[in-house]
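Lecture notes, unit on binding sites. The following record was shown on slide 14. It pairs a sequence with DLZ.
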Amino acid sequence: MPGKKKNLSAVRHIVLQEAESLHIGILVSQWNEEVTYAMRDAAVKTLMSSGIKKKNILIQEVPGSFELPAAAQMMAELTDVSAVICIGCVIQGETRHFEFISQAVANGVMRVGLDQKIPVVFGVLTTDTYQQARERAGGKHGNKGVEAAAAALKMIALNDYFFGLFEQTL
Ligand code: DLZ
């Protein structure tokens, strides 16, 4: 139903053609690692439940969320991944770091996705408190790692769909 709020953490299986041969990248920020590692693990589970082989999931850590866009660009350019899932957690502190990092990461991830022409997913929590972040990494608000993985798979499926339409015009 359009406009209805949907919690994608409920997503279980997304059917993809040739899932077994797909390679997917996951970048994980080491800041707030209790949260980001829980999101990473949920993302891996979601990918595997859709048929992605564990050996085809390329996981790499980065120092902080700010490094996610640059690492996503490297991964997209230098590996054969079909999508990059960027996982991070930025928590409001006493300084303005929060605003600068959140904004830069959101813009950077978007830009890499547009430039590289593969899905680059923004799996970055930006919360006021640590507690809010934990609630979204396996707590009462689900796990945003699941949602990030689901978004990557859906965008790959969308690309396949458009490619199919394009082939019909040839
Ligand atoms: C410096 C910093 C701060 C204050 N807070 C966070 C945060 O909440 N989450 C996060 O992922 N990273 C944080 N960082 C680190 C920056 O992302 C980055 O790694 C450093 O500024 C080095 O470029």
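Take-home: DSSP finds five helices and six strands in the chain.
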